[in-house]
Amino acid sequence: MDSSRKFLIISVSAAVLLIILVSCTLAYSGRDNTLMSDKTLSFEINGFNVELPLSENDAVYDAVSLSSVTENRIKLLNEVGATVKINDRGIGAGTTMDLKLESLSANQLIKIQVSNEKDQRTIYLRTLSAQLPNIIAAGESSYEGNYFTTIATGGAALYELNNKGEVVFYIAKSPERANGESYRDFKKHVLENGTVRYSYQRVNGDSNGIGYATGERVILDDQYKEIKTITLAQSERANAGDPVDGRDFILIDDNHYIVEASQLVLAQNVPAGLGANAMGAKVVRTLIQEVKDDQVVFEFTTDSHSEFYGLSVTDHDYSNTTSQNPDYSGFNRMIIDPTDDNLLVSFGNLNTIMKINRENGDVIWKLSGSSDEFGMSAEQKTSGQSDLAITKEGYLIVFDNALSTGQTRIQKIKLDEVNKKILDYQEYKVAGKTSLTDGSAQKIGDNIEVYTIGWGLLKDGNVAISEIDFNTGKKLLEVTLPQGITNDRVRKIK
């Protein structure tokens, strides 16, 4: 074979090889054959970003939020030059998949596989985050509804339990990720038109001793997706965007709600004899603000009622000698009375429950405390009560911490509001239980004496939730938390 033919054959072969190499390069463009160890998967899971390093095979991580009530929305945010599968289902960068979980358990994991031509990794997500406390439940409630609460001390977490005390939804962050953030007052709202909403208080750092769990109210849709946040609206008494307190919140509809906030003011109307500085006393007042269609339609402040100062039983240094921000009223709960649409409000530091006119802010009546108008006996009067509810039958349910006696109780009271009389009074106690703060009580069902109790900060013990039938004296469900970790208010809602 002459040299020219050899050269031609070699040239053609080289060209073919070059074409093959180029084709392979094009076919694998976007693929990364490097090792996984220096890469990180970025996901958005139920609205929260989650970074999952691939440095260690078989590593186990936590999501911020997962649910077994609704499907979980998972979006892969970044391209890692590899195939990604979640529970054996492929997912591409920028795409979203829905993942249904039948239950949430520390032993149930979500498997994530990542592979390219040279390397592969398998990592896992716990379905029940390790950032949640160890929740131990015994028993089972036969009454419909789930339990909603948050961790008041010991972490940044909120969760929903079913009637067996099993977690079915949560948001939980590690201390590093939370960065001082925490949560309060998680609950479900069923609006008049049947729409379901959820809300919780997102607490943003330190309030400098003014207010309780200050921050913003977060509203979630029926799929637990955040749809808006709420702070104070502009008015003569507040600036738009000022923080709200985490003690309570009423959602009437998507554009109509009631919030509460604490404000440090210089009061000039403290009655003589209470030791106030003649030039004014610094006090923390409670502001209740009702907003409809972005307009303030009602406001109430405690400092507009000078008679409240003298009712305070704690933290009322009006001379500002020892306190520069005395919270003399201690607001903790508010509900709308369905019989007249006025507000029922509990002030723990006044030992008083009041009905407030939602049109003009007048106090219609006071129950308990030193200005009680219903003739309560000394034994019936509350002491540091921290929760309030009303039944379909019109009974007032009060969680009385009873700090004066050391025996917390639930009070069931029927009032004659016209003649200012108590028509019926009953109380229920669990021996040895003293809740210092954050407790709650809710009557379950009709014509039965079954109550869901959130114990808040107990003086002794680590029981967090009890559901008790006081007719039979039996516990239906009991939930405990590790020592040093306590719940905020607990609500059971269908």
Q: Could you walk me through the main structural features you see in this protein, from its secondary elements to its overall organization?
A:
By secondary structure, this protein is mainly β. The protein has a domain at 36-126. The chain contains 2 helices and 38 strands. Strands 4, 12, 13, 14, 37 and 38 form a 6-stranded antiparallel beta sheet that branches. A 5-stranded mixed beta sheet has the order 3-10-9-6-7, with no helix packed on it.
In a few lines, what is going on in this structure?
The protein has 494 residues and is mainly beta. The protein has helices at residues 3-27, 175-178; strands spanning 40-45, 48-53, 60-62, 65-67, 72-76, 83-86, 89-90, 96-99, 109-115, 120-126, 136-139, 146-153, 156-161, 167-173, 181-190, 196-204, 215-220, 226-230, 250-253, 256-267, 281-292, 295-301, 331-336, 343-347, 352-356, 363-367, 387-390, 396-400, 409-416, 421-429, 435-437, 440-444, 450-454, 457-458, 463-469, 474-480, 486-487, 491-493.
